[in-house]
Amino acid sequence: MRLFYSLLPTALLLFFLCGVGDAADIPPSAFHPDGGAPDWNMPEVPRVAPEGEAGKTATAERPLIARIAQLMLVTLEGVTAPSANDLAFLKDTLPGGVVVPHATKASAAAAYVNMLHAIAKSAGKPLLVGTDLYRLTEPVRHVPSGFVQLPSLLAITASGDRGSVKDLARLMAQHVHFMGFNFHFGPTLELAPTLSGARNTIHTFGSDPDFAAEAGLLFHETFTENRVLYMPAGFPGGGANRADRNPAVLTTPRQTLLDHDALPYRKLAEQGVGMMHVGNVLSPTLDPENRPASMSSVVITDILRGEMGFEGVVVAGPMDDEVLRTRYDSSEAALQALEAGADMLYWQGGLLPVLHAIARIAAEVETGALDEARINRSLERLDALKASLNTPDKPVTEREAAKQAGQEELVETSRKVERHAITLLKNDGNVLPLIKKVSTPVGITGTVGVDELHSLLKKELKQVVQQRITTAHHIGEIQRFEIERLTKNMRGIRTVICVLTDGIRVETQMELLQALKANAPRVVVIYLGHPQNAARLTSADALVLAYCDTIAVAQTLEAMAGILIGNAPLSILSLGAPIDMKAGEARSFNAGEVIQAPSGRLPITLSPEFPAGTAARYNPAASIKRVEWDFGGDSVRKENVVRKFDTSGEVAVTLTVTDVNDEVCSGTFTVRVRE
After folding, report:
1. Collapsing DSSP states into helix, strand and coil, what is residue 504?
2. pLDDT top residue among 20 and 670
3. Residue 519 lies in a domain
4. Which end of the chain has fewer CB within 10 Å, C or N?
């Protein structure tokens, strides 16, 4: 098809790789976290893209290879520092941007970023240095993370706490800034999948496009204020992912997809976000040729740029995605993405495919198969974006980065969101909250966090019995012998708390639940992770959801223990239509009737029985510290108030509640008084 391509890549690849052995020429002290601050006067680094002494060479005058390399956004291999391969690649082929995937702690991340800025400074080019804070803070190779445990995106949505969400976005932006990053990859604005069996994750903002748009705007605003670029991930979105296809296929009708699923991206485009990521999802209702979105001119040029008016940098990929490689050579995919209108190509794996792609693209330009002006237009957009980058004049202070990582405000805000996110989905017979200091023992079993939950609850409950499940950790399934042992040991216990996760086959979870129900009068299921399978566990008397990573559950279990014993965050219920009463007629206003406890709401639709926004509740009395009614300026501090109005009209009634954690919530509703 493109004949010249077969003639040139070998020569180009040899050109790229000739400097690999020179990585050792750079002093280790300039790059290693233990070597102190980077040497900003480091020796000249050989590079393929010199900018000239003033760094002002016109776009079209830069070497072709250098221009193409600038259109690459690569993920580096090194965890605590750039690997030898990373260093060789950066020396010979400085890309436009890099993504740091993981770090053990904030000071290590800052040292890593300092190294990258030093390399870029030596090359005379600004560099996009980005990360996804959620990926950065994940435990790596069983090494505990030194970062704050952040609430998942589903938890953020379930909390419904706009103030805390805004605070969390601000603190995350500050955290990223103090580590020296100048752009943030995501969060994604894809809606949660709606089809049964679809790929599910706790890292979406749920089912509501308006909330996802609101959250995306908060992240954009707060990151911009902190001089960090925010790149929304996953355009064109799509909650209705086809689970029986790989890659995901969006079957949503075109207009619904654009007006509903893609709404968050449209809102961000209108606000002038500088970068937008386009994923590899197939969307036949948008593109009749059914090309991946990252390689579709219909999606990128016609819709994103044309219909939505996006003028920033389009990042497509990952080009080396495992699923994408089953259909396309990664070099061919990269070429088609550029032809479709992408400005940068994202790579999540090794560096060799990037070199192959650069060679392929250069060959196509040399033969005239790819218009060189197409490269230059993307480079001009990228240069304009980089002009606004936060590129530090001096290295980031590692001590300050570590201090910011552990700041109490970030820790407490994360905990607050976790507490507010926990959702009581079912509470038959008012099983919850558990009665404190009673003689009847409570049993605890489950696959994770049993020891931690036992330790937390035994402080409030007189007798707690624990029986850990062990088999599911390794095989994703609870073995029958384990079920028999657990049910035998739980006989005679009135209430059993069972902790389950989404990493276990739901059929064996159901079998365990049935066996427990046969031996214990009441069973409470705590479900951690994505709750899709929780909707099938409705035989439980109570079902409590927490949307957390099951690797790091300590913070979630602490919040969960409080809710089990009645120490729950509160929120004011939306009463909808006004309350009607007659003039001169006395009416009782009971705080407990308009308070939600716990405060979490289901962030996704699980079934017709459990649509997004639903939640059960229990008597909030144990969590109430103080209430205050405001009847149009007349304040009363009582939980139960009898009130009458002598004249007709509408009265705004405000209820403000302080809970036992000294958190304050307030809500206003209308009372309509008739003659």
Report:
1. coil
2. 670
3. yes
4. N
Give Dmax over CA atoms of the chain in angstroms.
93
Q: Which DSSP category does 149 fall into?
A: -
β partners of residue 444: 466, 497
How far is the CA of 322 from the CAs of 96, 436, 507, in angstroms? 23, 52, 30
Give the pLDDT confidence of 156-204 residue by residue, as tens digits: 999 988 888 888 899 899 889 889 999 999 899 999 887 665 667 899 9
pTM across the whole model = 0.86
251-273 per-position pLDDT tens digit: 889 999 999 999 999 999 999 99
Edge-to-edge, what's the strand order for the sheet holding 624-631?
579-582, 664-674, 649-659, 624-631, 634-636
Residue 238 domain-assigned? no
622-630: average pLDDT: 94
**Cβ atoms of residues 442 and 461 within 8 Å:** yes
Q: Which among 198-212, 264-278, 484-498, 548-562 has the top mean pLDDT?
A: 264-278
495 phi/psi in degrees, rounded to 5: -125, 125
The backbone torsions φ and ψ at residue 185, rounded to the nearest 5 degrees and listed phi first, read: -85, 100
Instruction: Quote the radius of gyration of the chain (alpha carbons, Å).
Output: 28
Cis peptide before 353 (omega within 30 of 0): no
Taking the C-alpha atoms of residue 18 and residue 89, their distance in angstroms, rounded to an integer, is 10
**DSSP conformation letters of 292-346:** BGGG-HIIIIIIIIIIS---SEEEE--TT-HHHHTTS-HHHHHHHHHHHT-SEEE
Contacts of 457 (CB under 8 A, 6+ apart): 442, 444, 464, 561, 564, 565
DSSP state of 448: S
Over range 459-464, report the average pLDDT. Answer: 85
Domain boundary among the residues 518, 550, 582 is at 550
Q: Residue 669's domain spans which residues? A: 571-674
Among the three residues 550, 581, 614, which one is the final residue of a domain in this structure? Answer: 550
Residue 129 corresponds to which amino acid?
V
Say how far apart CA 240 and CA 294 lie, in whole Å. 18
Of the candidates 426, 414, 452, 422, which has an alpha carbon nearest to the alpha carbon of residue 546? 422
Alpha-carbon gap, residue 557 to 450, rounded angstroms: 9
Q: What is the CATH number of the domain that holds 656?
A: 2.60.40.10
Is residue 22 very low, low, confident or very high in pLDDT (cuts 50, 70, 90)?
A: very low
Q: Which H or E run includes 641?
A: strand 640-643
CB of 73 closer than 8 Å to CB of 128: yes
